[in-house]
Amino acid sequence: MSSSSVTRAREALGQRLREIRKDSGLTARALAELCSWHESKCSRIEHGRVTPSDADLRAWALNCGVAGQAADLIATARGIDGMYVEWRRMESSGLKRAQESVLPLWERTRRFRAYSSWLIPGPLQTRPYIEALLSAIRDRREVPDDLDAAVQVRIDKQQILRRGGHRFALLLEESVLRHRIGTEAAMAEQLGHLLSVASLPAVSLGIVPFAADRSALWPVEDFWIFDDTQVNVELVSAYLTISQPHEIRMYVDTFAALSRQAVFGGDARRLIGGAIQALG
């Protein structure tokens, strides 16, 4: 299911197209006839039930006498389409492309906030952890095998942790420390690396302990907040981009609430150390 961001964006585009049609003096039925469509298609587009194709928008603009607006309308619709991207589409040519697709966003973001209830976040992952994780994704989703290249892209992206101008606030559920990805040796290395990276000036690492009182807020889906402009959520089937301000605020507020449940500094390091010891 897509978020209300997608629904609202479709509705806004539909309203814009309705205004264009009305300004042209055409009824929905008349426009449908000019475009050789079923008469219900205009209604579905104007009410945001579907995102129109490039060809639909060119026909709409042409027959409403505003052909010059077609390019802008197409760009708007493609932006909506990009809010909810199925993994099979994003990874159709392999995992490397999916890893590279977020690089521009990472470069321009100054403040990163991330919450994870399942996995160590990407910037803190070791190579063996990344290899085990991406190998499982490759096999489960049956995508082309470009594992080595995808792993290297993720490793290279981690350089941002040590560059000036970027700050990371990362929250993990304690269970993340106990979810073994790869061999026990690889997981022990990963937890040791977590201790090391958490000491970087640009990184704040909090862990929500098993003992935290969860009556007010329980674990939620993993998410990243990029400045205050965008939220990304990884769903089972798709990659969700949230841009509606009120929805972003909900994630910002949730992150703040989770931060109040978390422990930091020495208490966080003790939880990591306990997880390492549990590996034997």
From TrEMBL:
It comes from the Bacteria. SMART domains: HTH_XRE (SM00530). Residues 17-53 form the HTH cro/C1-type domain. Coiled coil: none annotated. Pfam families: DUF5753, HTH_31. InterPro entries: Cro/C1-type_HTH, DUF5753, Lambda_DNA-bd_dom_sf. This is Helix-turn-helix domain-containing protein. It comes from Streptacidiphilus cavernicola.
